[in-house]
Amino acid sequence: MSDVDAMMPAIDEIHILWISEGMSCDGDSISVTAAAQPSIEDVVLGLIPGLPKVHLHNKVLSPKVGGEDFLAPFRAAARGELDAPFVLVVEGSIPNEQINGDGYWTSFGNDDAGDPKPLNDWLDELAPKAWGVVAAGTCATFGGIHAMAGNPTGCMGLADYLGWDFRSAGGLPIVNIPGCPVQPDNFMETLTWLLYQAAGLAPVIPLDDQLRPTWLFGKTVHEGCDRAGYYEQGDFAKDYNSPKCQVKIGCWGPVVNCNVTKRGWMGGIGGCPNVGGICIGCTMPGFPDKFMPFMDAPPGGSVSSAMLGGVYGPMIRLLRGITNKTVNKEPKWRHNRAELTSGYDPRWGN
Amino acid sequence: MATTPERIKPKVNVVDMSWDPITRIVGNLGIYTKIDFDKQEVLTCKSTSSIFRGYSVFMKGKDPRDAGFITSRICGICGDNHTTCSNYAQQMAYGVKPPPLADWIVNLGEAAEYIFDHTLFQDNLVFVDFCEQMVRETNPDLLAKAETTPAPRADQHGYATIADIMRAFNPFEGAIYKEALVLSRLAREMFCLMEGRHVHPSTLYPGGVGTVATPQLFTDYLVRLLRCLDFIKQGVALNDDIFDFFYEALPGYEEVGRRRILLGCWGAFNNPEHVDYQYRNMSSWGNEMFVTPGIIVDGKLITTDLVDINLGIRILLGSSYYSDWEQEEMFVTHDPLGNPVDRRHPWNQTTLPRPQKRDLEGGNYSWVMSPRWYDKRTDEHLALDTGGGALARLWVTALAGKVDTPYVKSTGSSVLINLPKTATTPESTLEWKIPQWSNALERDRARMYFIAYAAAMALYFVEQGLREVRAGHTKTFEDFDVPDDAIGCGFHEAVRGLLSHHMVIRDGKIANYHPYPPTPWNGSPTDSYGTPGPYEDAVAGTPIFEQNGPDDFKGIDIMRTVRSFDPCLPCGVHMYLGKGKTLQTQHSPMFGAQTG
């Protein structure tokens, strides 16, 4: 109760400015249309008691035809003239625009001169003015697939760009909701928490050191997996025909923070190792590099599974803790310095 | 004006109009046009994409088995089409054929993807352009007419007038808009049953699937599929009513988004009884697919042979931010049948990004390259389009006359789709007939029919999958070794059209990998031969029916044209509505002669 009391004044109307022009596939926007707990239309139509009135500005779902008509609220927010507070949702990894001369990697509309306006310029203008900033999906949270070794764009996660100690106008750190794509209900539930918080009905959202909601990412895939019983019996799948535990054929579940095996993908259906798909660590800061090649057994997996006969629980937890720490770190080439260190040798001559 | 006798001063009202970004699509697309408001026609169009991500660059040196997991991330709406296509290419390279059950399961997942994706795009994104709110803002006279026009198929869908249908499309509020979101979720549950997760699948591997194939899997899928069928049957009737009304109420609307009939389809739904994924047999098993591959030029089907299709692919530059690869290494000089492979073929492409300022006036303006298909009969590099996917699939399948199942049958000039009785609708046979034009309305109409096609094929695939399981053939994965040196190619249909993946393996690692999804074909900029991309030439020449002038112009006819292709630019494009900057108001003899 005291947490709630300590918060800022309640907000009764709020904009969601959603930019998917990071280096992304827009898969997080599409994923959100799959959510039913709650659905995006429930939130937009005001069907959840207590939430502020929400104005959603998302390119995929916008009723506008496009262009300036669509960009108007973004431009107003950048000038500090939007009529209500806003949550900035960023989708996609943030490129390094300091390494490509006169060119650009990704833009969102045009600037005053009629040239493409880079995403990074928008972020510089909007993020400090936002009531809250949300990074949707692993590209935006940690860099993701486009930030793989050998990438030409030098891209990174939003916190690498804005700084891990960034605070929004509402006094919040960035809220990271990883997943490739983001699990639909994980996103909507986190957004709903923030909206309750804005309305003065919830305390500050609890986040871990990677800025992830603790109730969603506090457990591992393995801890929620219904195949973990096979693991306990030392009975492992040798190839993808088997319904048994997949740690010897590529599953990283024991060291990956994600709730998909508990929540399923949508409506409780689907998921990853629980339905025959190895966990490739897609929610993690170390994704994808630290999990490749995906179809080989993770090194830690064979060590801990070999120990099943003797030393049990505490030792396994210790070993997994070490690996978990490693994969919870991004590779070192994801940064916003004016240099490309991904291993790619550019020929554009800057 | 018309009565001014002396010195005619033909005031040409050509305005620069652009939309950047375009909404209700996936990815970054900008469309830059010059519009003649006197003639009510678009003069020129440029299509640009403002995003580069670099898959073909960062995949080099990686484990080839990772390709399906990585390439899914190209697309946020049909990522699974990439995984599937990549696995096809890998299976060729590794020489592995998955157990038949695995192919049926992949077909079921892909059918659910078509149903989900076409529904979400049609009803929640495209139809906003045809909804009551939008028509009121752009063509109030048309809306007035719609209010008094009875819907001819009201008995099938329950909406009394055309305007009632339009209201049902209103975003977030309209009944069909809301039902479509719910249906798109149901179809995605079907998808997740087969492929684990949407949009990036978890259970697909080269060599098969990890999906647990028990009878329950098929039960859970089938009951959901049957629940989709009422909506689908009614949807076809609703779509026909709307599009027929546009032709009737706005004579000349067939010219909106019309272009030369140049359609490509790379085929979908492999038949496990025939496919062995080997290149040398590809001509034969390609023709057994449940959506036939092929190329249509000016209405004629010129090939259905995947080897011909493969060898004709050329990647051109011309207006893109890349350096040429003429001086780079050739990876594949001959295909496994001994045919020479061109330097501009994806197997031999080297991607050399060259970031630079955008120059829309005669320079480079897009991160998308220009894929073309070389027609050796005429020595032309054809700018094929996909008709948004569904149009090319139905058209090729109809003309080829090869698909013959109890649920879908090609007649040589049409496609028959049989759907069983469901809760509120009787058993029905739908017939998609080859249209007169390749234009915006026919691309949109085909999409709804293809949803029905995919649903009907899914019924067939459920039967086949269950037959395998009941016979005890429950194996879903076949093991393989990755060779040190190999090549592979995969052909598939992404939801919005043709999709290919080309891979070269050296020393057990990826030496070259090039995915070519539909949007680089459809959304490509003008190529090195000066040939515009399909969006560009479909928009150029499009008549303007919108009643608003330059000051409050929405560009609805242009938007309908562009969205009819189902743009999806993560795969490869960026509209900006400048505040109608007047480009030239001038005395021009050429324009003047044409203005009244």
The major β-sheet of chain B equals:
4 strands, antiparallel
**What distance separates the N and C termini of chain B?**
8 Å
User: Outline of chain A, from the CA principal axes?
Assistant: globular
Q: Gyration radius of chain A, to the nearest Å?
A: 21 Å
Low-confidence stretches of chain A: 1-6
Count all strands of chain A and give the number: 7
Average per-residue pLDDT of chain A, rounded, comes to: 92
The largest beta-sheet of chain B arranges its strands as: 3-2-1-20
Give me the Rg of chain B, rounded: 24 Å
Q: What would you call the quaternary organization?
A: heterodimer
Side by side, the strands of the main sheet of chain A go 2-1-3-6-7
Task: Show the helix and strand layout.
The complex is a heterodimer of chains A (350) and B (596).
Chain A: H1 2-5, E1 13-19, H2 27-32, H3 40-44, E2 53-57, H4 67-78, E3 86-91, E4 107-110, E5 116-118, H5 119-126, E6 132-136, H6 138-142, H7 158-162, E7 175-177, H8 184-198, H9 214-217, H10 228-232, H11 260-263, H12 299-306, H13 313-327
Parallel strand pairs in A: 1-2, 1-3, 3-6, 6-7
Antiparallel strand pairs in A: 4-5
Chain B: E1 11-19, E2 30-36, E3 41-48, H1 55-58, H2 67-72, H3 79-94, H4 100-126, H5 132-138, H6 140-148, H7 154-157, H8 162-168, H9 175-195, E4 204-205, E5 208-209, H10 215-249, E6 262-265, H11 282-286, E7 294-297, E8 300-303, H12 306-312, E9 313-316, E10 322-323, E11 352-353, E12 370-375, E13 380-382, H13 390-400, E14 408-410, E15 414-419, E16 428-433, H14 440-470, E17 486-494, E18 497-506, E19 509-516, H15 518-522, H16 534-539, H17 556-564, E20 581-587, H18 589-594
Antiparallel strand pairs in B: 1-2, 1-20, 2-3, 4-5, 6-7, 7-8, 9-12, 10-11, 12-13, 14-15, 15-16, 17-18, 18-19
Helix pairs in contact in B: 4-9, 4-14, 5-6, 9-10, 10-14, 13-14, 14-17
